[in-house]
C-alpha cells in the first residue's frame, strides 16, 4: 500500500497514520481469536503499512497487550506508535469463560483506580505486560458517566487531580510522549479540558457518520487547544458496517440498536447504494475530514479484514455523495466532508 498520511498528535512530537489499528478484538472481544490468528493479523497489518496500534489492559484482561507487545518487540521500538490505557488494574480472579464481553483465558478481573498511585501502577503493569521499552500515548480509560454512572461524581475529581498529575509527570519525565482520555463520551473530554493540558482524546462512537453532536462545542475547543482526536468506533459498534438489511442482530453502542438508529442507518444505506459506495467506506473516511482528527482506528479481528479495511479506506467517494446526505438531513451541514479519498484529492 502507499504510505498513509501522517498527522501530528496535538503539540507533541508524535505523528500517527490516518488509519490505525484498534486491538480490542485481539483480546477476544465477543469470540476467541487463537494466538496463531492474532499473530497472523498483526504480522499482516505490519506488512501492509499499519504503524499505529492502540490497546488496553481491559481488552481481554491483559491478553491484547501481551499479543501486541509480542508482535512489536522484534522492531525494538522502531517505526511504530503505541498507545495503551490506565485506570483499570488487573487482579487474580480465577478462570472464566467470559468477562466484560471478552472470551479471554486470562484469570483476572478489572478494578478501577484513577488515583495517582493507581495510574502509576497501571502504567508500570502495562509496560511489563507489553514487554516493550516505551508507551507513546497514554489514555485514561473510561472515566465518565457512561461507564460509572452516578459514581463518576466521586471518581472524576480523583482522576483530574491525582490521575492527571501522574500522567503529566510521566509525560514530563519522557516516559510517555502524549496523554489523553480514551472514552465513549465527548462530554467528559470537554470537562477534562478545564483540568489539564491534554494532547489527544480517543473518542469512540461519538463523531461518526451517524452522529455529530461533538461539533457543537467540543471539537471547536479541541482546535482552540491544539488537542487531537483519534476516532474509535467509526462503525458505531458495527451497524454502519453491516447495514440493517441482514437477518442478524443490529448493534449500536454495544447493545441492541434503537429504532431511530435503525431508521437513520437505513436511509444512509439507501444513499450509499444509490452512489455505489460501501457504507463502511463512508463511515471509515468521514471523521478524517475534520481538522482535529488525527487518525481513525477500526478494530480488526480476522486476517482477511486487513485487506477489506484498506480497500474501504482507499475507496474514492464523490463530493456529491456528501451533499446528498446533507440535503436528506442525514448529515449535519456544518460537518467537514473532504474525507480520506474524494474526487479531486490526492490519496
Characterization of this structure:
The protein is α/β, with parallel strands linked by helices and 347 residues long. 36% of the residues lie in helices and 16% in strands. It has 12 helices and 14 strands. Strands 3-4-5-8-9-10-11-14 form an 8-stranded parallel beta sheet. A two-stranded antiparallel ribbon has the order 1-2. The longest helix is centred in the middle third of the chain and has 21 residues. It is globular. The protein starts with 5 loop residues before the first strand and ends in a 20-residue tail after the last helix. The C terminus is likely disordered.
Q: What are the key terms here?
A:
347 residues, alpha/beta, two-stranded antiparallel sheet, 12 helices, 14 strands, disordered C terminus
Largest beta sheet, briefly? 8 strands, parallel
Structural class, judged by helices and strands? alpha/beta
Which H/E pattern describes the elements?
EEEHEHEEEHEHHEHEHEHEEHHEHH
Distance between the ends: 11 Å
Number-wise, the strands total 14
Percentage beta strand: 15-25%
Mean pLDDT over the residues: 95
Rg, Å, rounded: 19 Å
- What is the overall shape? globular
Helical residue percent band: 25-40%
Amino acid at each position: 500500500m502507499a504510505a498513509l498520511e501522517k498527522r501530528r498528535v496535538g503539540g507533541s512530537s508524535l505523528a500517527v497514520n490516518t488509519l490505525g489499528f484498534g486491538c480490542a478484538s485481539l483480546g477476544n472481544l465477543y469470540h476467541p481469536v487463537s494466538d496463531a490468528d492474532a499473530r497472523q493479523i498483526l504480522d499482516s497489518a505490519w506488512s501492509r503499512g499499519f504503524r499505529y496500534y492502540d490497546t488496553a489492559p481491559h481488552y481481554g484482561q491483559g491478553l491484547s497487550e501481551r499479543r501486541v507487545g509480542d508482535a512489536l518487540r522484534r522492531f525494538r521500538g522502531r517505526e511504530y506508535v503505541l498507545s495503551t490505557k490506565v485506570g483499570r488494574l488487573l487482579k487474580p480472579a480465577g478462570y472464566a469463560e467470559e468477562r466484560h464481553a471478552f472470551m479471554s483465558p486470562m484469570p483476572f478481573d478489572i478494578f478501577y483506580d484513577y488515583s495517582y498511585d493507581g495510574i502509576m501502577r497501571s502504567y508500570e503493569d502495562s509496560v511489563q505486560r507489553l514487554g516493550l521499552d516505551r508507551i507513546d500515548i497514554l489514555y485514561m480509560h473510561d472515566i465518565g458517566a457512561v461507564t460509572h454512572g452516578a459514581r463518576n461524581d466521586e471518581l472524576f475529581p480523583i482522576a483530574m487531580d491525582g490521575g492527571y498529575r501522574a500522567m503529566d509527570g510521566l509525560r514530563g519525565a519522557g516516559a510517555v510522549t502524549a496523554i489523553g482520555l480514551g472514552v465513549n463520551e465527548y462530554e467528559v473530554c470537554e470537562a477534562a479540558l478545564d483540568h489539564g493540558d491534554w494532547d489527544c482524546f480517543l473518542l469512540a462512537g461519538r463523531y461518526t457518520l451517524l452522529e455529530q453532536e461533538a461539533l457543537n462545542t467540543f471539537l471547536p475547543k479541541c482546535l482552540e487547544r491544539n488537542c487531537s482526536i483519534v476516532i474509535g468506533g467509526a462503525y458505531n459498534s458495527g451497524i454502519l458496517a453491516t447495514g440493517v438489511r441482514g437477518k442478524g442482530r443490529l448493534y449500536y453502542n454495544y447493545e441492541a440498536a434503537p429504532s431511530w438508529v435503525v431508521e437513520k442507518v437505513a436511509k444512509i444505506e439507501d444513499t450509499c447504494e444509490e452512489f455505489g459506495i460501501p457504507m463502511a467506506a463512508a463511515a471509515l473516511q468521514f471523521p478524517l475530514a475534520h481538522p482535529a482528527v488525527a487518525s481513525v482506528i477500526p478494530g480488526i479481528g480476522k486476517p482477511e479484514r486487513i485487506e477489506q479495511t484498506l480497500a474501504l479506506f482507499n475507496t474514492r467517494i464523490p463530493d456529491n455523495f456528501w451533499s446528498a446526505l446533507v440535503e436528506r438531513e442525514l448529515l449535519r451541514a456544518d460537518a467537514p466532508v473532504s474525507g480520506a479519498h474524494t474526487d479531486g484529492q490526492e490519496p
